[in-house]
Amino acid sequence: MDGKFESYAAEQRAMIDWLTGRSPDARHAIAQDLNFDFAEDVFEWILTQPDCDLATAASYFWRTEPFDLLENSAYRSEDSMTVQRLIDRVNAGFYSRSEIFYGGQEPREGEEVDSSTLEEAELLREFAHDHKASNLPWTLPEALVPPFGHRAVRISDEEDPDKSEELRKLFAGLGTGSGLIPAEAMGADQPPGKMPQPAQQFTVGKKAAASSRSPFTPFYLYIAFVAAGWGLIYVFDPPRHVYTVMLCCCLGFARATFTQVRFGMKEKADKRVQTVSMERSVGSARVKPQGIYILDSNGNYGWEFANWDRLQPDGGGLGLNYRGAPWPDSMLDLPRGPWRIPDYVETPKLIFDPKRKVQDIYAVDYFLFISDKMKSLLEEFAPKSCEYLLCETEFSNGKTGPRIWLCSVVDSYRKAVDVENSPLIRVTQWGGYMISGGADWHFLPDVLKGTQLFRLVEYAGSIFCDQTFKDLCKDRGIKGTSFQQVGFLPK
Question: Which DSSP letter does residue 467 get?
C-alpha cells in the first residue's frame, strides 16, 4: 500500500482524535475550514455525531454547491451520495440540536442572511418542480435553509483555528492553511527526477473546498454582468449611446457564454462516455456484465421520529458504533459486522404526515425502513440477508399508521472487489475503501456467489444489490427506491 494514503489517513485520524470529546461548537468551528479533498472521513465523523448542530450540517450542505450537484448528479455521483446520506439524516430528525446561528455561507456586508444562499435554495426548489421531485436523487430539505439558530459559536482559544498552533499543524496536514502541499499527498504520480515541477498550493479559506466547477459558471457570471450593467445604467442614466454599447456587449457576451457552457457540458459528457467505455472494455467482449448498484431511497420523507434520542441508553439513535452502541462485532469483522439490530430501550416510533404518500422504502443512517410489500420481496429473494423489527407508527392526526419495519442488511462480504482493476478505489491503512467517484468497481462473482443484496466489509455504510434485484423492485412496483450504479459483475 502506498505511503501517501497511509499519511493521509493518519492525518485524518489525528484530527478525529483531537475532536473526540470536544463540544459541538468546536466541531462546527473546525468544519468551517476543513478541505473537502483531504478530510472526507473527518466530515463523515463530525456529521454523524448525535449532538452535531444543524448549522454544521447546513454549512457542509451549502459548501457542496448543491444546485450544481443536483443538476449534474450523474457526473458527481460520489458527492451526490454523500449529500443524500446527509439529507436522509436531516429528514429523519437526526439533527435535533439547533443552537448555533446560521445565516448562509458568506453574507455580504450589511446582510444578516446570505442572499446568494437563499437564491440557490430557490433554484433548487424550481429545479425539483420542473423535473418532478420523485425522479431526482434528493431534494432540498427546508430545514437547511437559513436563517436558524440563536447564538454565536462558543469556543476556547485552544479550539480556535486562528489561535492554536496544534490546530494549525493538523489543518496543514489536511490541505488547509498557508504553505505548499506536496504532490504525493494529492495521490499524483511523481515527475521525473531531473524535470523541475511547480509545487501545488492550496488557498486558505472556504472557497478552497469547492472541488468541482460547474459548466454553467459562465452563465452565472453573464447574468451577474447583465444585472450589474443595466443596474448602473438605470441609476446613473448615461447618454443614449451607452445603451447601444451595453446592448451590443450583452449580445456578444451571450454568444461567448453559450459556447463556453456548451463546451463545458460536452467535456463532462465525454468524461462520462470514457468511464462507460472503460466498464464495457473489461471482461468478455461478447457478454454484457451485470450491473451492481447502491440501494437507497429517493429522500422524499413524510415522517419523523418520535423517540430517536430514547432508543438507546446513550442517546445513540439507531445504533451506529461511534459511541459504543451494543453491536456484537467491530466494523470489519465477519460474518455479521456491526449491522445487527440492537436491543432498543424503546421500539422505534414514527409519526407520519397524513398528507404525504407512504413509500415502500426509506434509507436512514445506513438502515432501511420498509413496508410489508418490500419486506415480502426481501424475504422471497434475499431470505438470509436481513434482520427486521416492526416499528410503532401513527399519523399526526392520531390515526393508526402504516406497518413499517426497521430493516438491517447483515449479509457482508470481504474482498469482494478486484481493487487492482478498480482504479477509483483506494485502500486506507485500516483496510477500508476510499472512493473518488465513477462506476468502475469490478466485483468478484466467486466471492459474492450469486447474492443479490449485501454489504461490503470495507465500505459497510452502503447497501449493494445486483441488476436482478433492481429489476424486481421495478416489476413489483416498489415505491421510493433510488439506485446508483457503482460497478459490474462479470459473467
Answer: H
Q: Where would I find the H helices in 20-114?
A: 24-31, 40-47, 54-63, 66-71, 77-91
Phi, psi of 62 (to 5 degrees): -75, -25
Alpha carbon separation from 373 to 340, 370, 395 (Å, rounded): 22, 8, 19
Answer whether the bond into residue 338 is a cis peptide, omega within 30°.
no
**C-alpha cell recorded at residue 23:** 463540544
> Which runs of consecutive H residues, i.e. helices, occur in 344-466?
372-381, 445-448
Q: What nine digits make up the cell of 271?
A: 468524461
Neighbours of 274 (CB within 10 A): 11
How far is residue 61's CA from residue 59's CA, in Å, rounded to a whole number? 5
**C-alpha to C-alpha distance for 75 and 89, rounded to whole angstroms:** 23
* CA–CA gap between residue 213 and residue 265 (Å, rounded): 11
Q: How far apart are CA 435 and CA 461, in angstroms?
A: 13
- Of the candidates 405, 379, 377, 402, the one whose C-alpha atom is nearest the C-alpha of residue 472 is 377
Tell me which residue of 478, 484, 482 sits closest to 459, measured CA to CA.
484
Cell 475532536 locates to 19
Alpha-carbon distance of 33 to 48, in angstroms, equals: 18
Sites in the chain below the pLDDT cut of 70:
1-8, 37, 73-80, 133-134, 175-216, 261, 263-288, 314-316, 319-338, 429-430, 435-439
Cell 457564454 belongs to which residue?
257
pLDDT tens digits along 197-246: 333 333 333 333 333 456 667 777 778 888 888 888 888 888 877 788 88
Q: Which of 294, 247, 300 shows the shortest CA–CA distance to 80?
A: 294
All cell numbers assigned to 291 = 450491473
| Contact (CB, 8 A) for 52 and 46 | yes
Q: How far apart are the first and last CA of the chain?
A: 29
User: With left for phi above 0 and alpha for psi between -120 and 50, is residue 415 left, alpha or beta?
Assistant: left
Pairing relation of β-strands 392-395 and 349-352? parallel
CA distance 320 to 326: 9
Residue 254 DSSP SS3: helix
For the chain, the 3-state helix, strand and coil shares in percent, each to the nearest 5, are 40, 15, 40
Closest of 409, 395, 422 to residue 462, by C-alpha: 409
Q: What does the pLDDT read at residue 285?
A: 39
